[in-house]
Amino acid sequence: MKTPENDPAPAAPEAQPLTSHPNRVLAVLLAACVSFALSQVLVLPALPALARNYNASPTTTSWILTGFLLSASIATPVVGKLGERYGKARMLTAVLLMFCLGAVVNALAPSVGVLIAGRVLQGVAGGVFPLAFGVVRDSFPQPQVPGAISLISAIFGVGSGIALPLSGVIVDHLDVSWLFWLGLVALPVAVAAHRWVPPSPRGDGNGIDWAGALLLAAVLASLLLGVTQAPSLGWGSPADVALLCGGSVLLLLWIRLESRTARPLIRLDVLAQRTVAMTNVTAFLIGLAIFAGFLLLPQLAQAPAGDGPGLGTTATVAGLLLLPSAIGQLLVGTFAGRLGVALGFRRTLVLGAALTSGSFAQLTVFHSVPWHLLLGGFTMGAGASFAFGSMANLIVQSVQGSEVGVVTGINTVVRTVGGAFGSAIATTVLAAHAGSAGTPPGDGYTTAFVVATAAATSAILSALLVPTRQGS
């Protein structure tokens, strides 16, 4: 039965399919996205080991992650735009090869500075997500588009869930360089992308708004640095205030520039469209909650048992406790697209936000035994899969084909910025509750879970503000 939510968007007419092997192309796209997700998350549990290996301070070592996030956030919308201009298949192959080059640099890095540079190079592959969404929209038969987009959206969480326990095994039993040699799995994926991903329609031949791209890079760098470094600098410190205020001023300048540019990097009227705007707000809030969960669950599992708040597990076991999150994302990803077509993606977005909120509400009250964390993680993963798949589908339905890459790229960036806030807030809350031994008591975790619950509950409200008819 058709409802207004299921009507085709006027801004997104059905494209002529360019591939007779959509399942093969989808496998390549999923492998590309998994490669990126693994690389981003593998280093998280390994940061202390990397600090010891390179004799570096924790602050310096944190740049192994921060540099990657900055690069990915800056590159994602730009790579999406380049894909529209020069061809998505060509750009997908290029960023995967850059990713492999960064993996080799990382594995052979003689110093932490070289390692950080390699991670920045790898971060450019963050553009695989908008490129993948664009390839699906351009090349797949229309009935397969929603399901494929939902699977691609879910695969980031699946890769993250696999990466955490895998990282623990590598740190415990192998040399840390294997954290980076694994990145070379993207090399055969790049070859497959070159051979099997069909060429997409090219843009109109106009150049890229490099001034807008550089200013957006400065905005994201300032804001992300202000957020990620806040726990160490202090939220009210002069340096952190300067970064956050400077980023806000640069954002206003970027908006002014884009509004006056004939061919901007990102059309502001598209971002202001209600569907896109409220989807991005929801992405920020869900990203905040989910990334806070990724930080809190392993720390809680490894926290001292007995008089302490945690379970006293090893890093490897703590990572394994997050596997239900990956399973939840993968299971939901297999049918979320079909359910979204049947019910409308606005409704499945609300459902995803509600499941995410429920998972953190449960963890706020119950987090003292392993099955509490397993259940909370599974529900969180299921909610994230519904939410992220719905967001991508809503955007693809609502914007013109030439805008899909850059607008889905912005949605990914907004989610990353939300995740940076979530991680920083969770870290700050735990530090504020830490005792003289440096271990947060149980109420520290409870407070952090309350914050995540509030963010996910707010996401329900923002999702309800998404129009029922797309293209509005």
Automatic annotation (TrEMBL):
Which molecular function terms from Gene Ontology are attached? transmembrane transporter activity
| Keyword terms of this UniProt record | Membrane, Transmembrane, Transmembrane helix, Transport
| Chief subcellular location | membrane
Q: Which InterPro entries match?
A: MFS, MFS_dom, MFS_trans_sf
**Membrane-spanning residues:** 25-48, 60-79, 91-109, 115-136, 148-170, 176-196, 208-227, 233-255, 276-297, 317-336, 348-367, 373-396, 417-435, 447-466
Name the SUPFAM superfamilies on file: MFS general substrate transporter (SSF103473)
Where in or outside the cell it occurs: the entry states:
Cell membrane
GO CC annotation terms, alphabetical: plasma membrane
Q: How does it sit in the membrane?
A: Multi-pass membrane protein
Q: Which residues form the Major facilitator superfamily (MFS) profile domain?
A: 25-470
* One Pfam family it belongs to: MFS_1
PANTHER family found in the cross-reference section: MAJOR FACILITATOR SUPERFAMILY MULTIDRUG TRANSPORTER MFSC
This chain's protein is named Major Facilitator Superfamily protein
Report the source organism.
Actinoplanes philippinensis
What lineage does UniProt assign to this protein's organism? Answer: Bacteria, Bacillati, Actinomycetota, Actinomycetes, Micromonosporales
